[in-house]
């Protein structure tokens, strides 16, 4: 195990205070390096460095965002003598004439997150602790954030989901098998002045046996592979067993009213029915579940993607892909899916399971959408006949984008296609004619759905037949938009 980080709480607290007082934040990064700062990699650092002025905050960006050495005098000017001493005490940098950073520290929202430095791909050690990765961002976006008593983050890594939960949970437990991950989590808690995060070492849910939580997050080491190379990637479990265990245990540890947001993967023998296993896992939890596949691939693409670090060495790449393909062949697996499983435990009302594809590249913060969606499943299941929804007062609950495609036909212009897209959150879309869009756009919760449809019909001069067609279309669309949290039923 590397000698850093050292989770010296007093030193990390000093360092956090110094970083904040120099103004190190997402805003400062965007101002100094532009909106794309976070998508750069180590190759971009020398160019990014040239954009930086000679100011104290730019020194911090140079050292801990770009992971480049700075002079000791510049570091003292930016962080003060105590801040520089804290770097030595925590092991986050080698301090001599120069300050040579061993780690990166990224501002993520209001959180400062220290982790191992830029990845060296195949040369990363087995206990490498990654920063705020694209999958960490997906899990962050898909986590509901109500005020809760107890939260749990399993496989915490740098601790990012524990830190984010610590802002709205009274107490957070963070688990990992990797002691370096837990050292980073403890250090990061102090860096952010948080005293409500408890770290426990152990596999999956073993360290929290018999306990329940109001919020559970887990970005699982879900990559199905024949290898055991990196703690963050390979769980060492067979097939997709780590994911099955995470879903099952999350259900068991979820308190009444609680939410779980889990990133997992699942296998299928048949590309045309890719989700049977995950559906069965969720069904067995007894919770309501929302399954959100983000990608699916055949074993070859899966093997190529997860061995891309070998792309510069065709022989090693070929051997690895062969080994992975043989593993999947032996398992009889033809399709691998990755995505999120969201669980909600509610003992009153009927439970439901829904599945929607989401585009992980086009995902905004969706926590409120998720809470609203689960909230509406109970009244929807209790309504019985869909027609009873006509008596409910419904309102638009999040930004919507209404799209119409028009085509000239003779002397007229006709609607050929239309859809309603969520302009925030998970950005799903449903087909909707222009007339149905009119109805949805008028839903402010003041009138029943029936009254809004009738008023729209009057305004558009619809015949009885056209009105009943509109009613049936609006009922279907309203049902879906309620289920995905874009609309809400008013009490
Ligand atoms: C994909 S990383 C996620 C890290 C972090 N939560 C995030 O979202 O950035 C998976 C994490 O699970 C940890 N891990 C691997 N096997 C584990 C196990 N059996 N039990 C608990 N954690 C495990 C790894 O050390 C790593 O920190």
Could you list some keywords that capture this structure?
single chain, 491 residues, alpha/beta, Rossmann fold, Enolase-like, domain 1, 3 domains, eight-stranded mixed beta sheet, three-stranded antiparallel beta sheet, 16 helices, globular, binds S-adenosylmethionine
Question: In words, what does this structure look like?
Answer:
There is one protein chain. This protein has helices at residues 9-21, 26-33, 45-51, 56-65, 72-90, 134-141, 160-165, 179-191, 241-253, 276-285, 299-306, 314-331, 367-383, 434-441, 449-460, 464-483, and strands at 70-71, 93-95, 98-101, 103-108, 111-116, 148-154, 169-176, 197-201, 213-219, 254-268, 288-297, 335-344, 353-355, 393-396, 400-409, 412-422, 429-431, 444-448, 487-489. It is of the alpha/beta class. It has 3 domains: 9-103, no CATH class; 111-363, Rossmann fold, CATH 3.40.50.150; 383-489, Enolase-like, domain 1. Strand 9, helix 9 and strand 10 form a beta-alpha-beta unit. It starts with 8 loop residues before the first helix and ends with a strand. Bound molecules: S-adenosylmethionine.
Q: What proportion strand?
A: 15-25%
Tell me, rounded to a whole number, the average pLDDT: 94
> What overall geometry do the principal axes of the alpha carbons give?
globular
In CATH's first tier, which class of the largest domain applies? Alpha Beta
Q: What class, by secondary structure content?
A: alpha/beta
